[in-house]
Amino acid sequence: MDLRVYYRKLREIAEGLEADFVVVKSLATADGGVAGRLTEASKTIAARLLLEGVAELAPQAEAAAYRRQAADQQKAEEQRRAANAQVQFTVLTETDLRRLQNQNQGKGGSKE
User: Which of 55, 87, 93, 101 is deepest in the core (most CB within 10 A)?
Assistant: First the structure.
């Protein structure tokens, strides 16, 4: 294939895409590509995938569901990280540690 033709087609496809990021759906390929996987890609990458025949534009309903799922996963990850960031700890002096150990031994809580 002539490189000028390839890049002209690539630019035409990219210009035809409305959003800066689009959701594409993979197609089965001879080298083991799995059909039906959704991915969000930039215009340039999506245009290349479309031109090379390894993906197609995802239908609007599937793209919207994919973006909702991605947003939900991001929100859950942010909540998990926030919970981990709130771990509290206390620094004890050696005297405080001994006092706590003595209190536990008096209650029968020590297993040393």
Answer: 55
For residue 33, give the DSSP letter: P
Separation CA 39–CA 32 (nearest Å): 17
CA distance 22 to 57: 8
Q: What is the pLDDT of residues 5-49, one digit of tens each?
A: 999 999 999 999 999 999 999 999 888 889 999 999 999 999 999
Closest CA to 27 of 46, 5, 55: 55
Residue 50 CB partners (closer than 8 Å, separation 6+) = 13, 24, 56, 57
Compute the distance between CA of residue 112 and CA of residue 105 in angstroms, rounded to an integer: 9
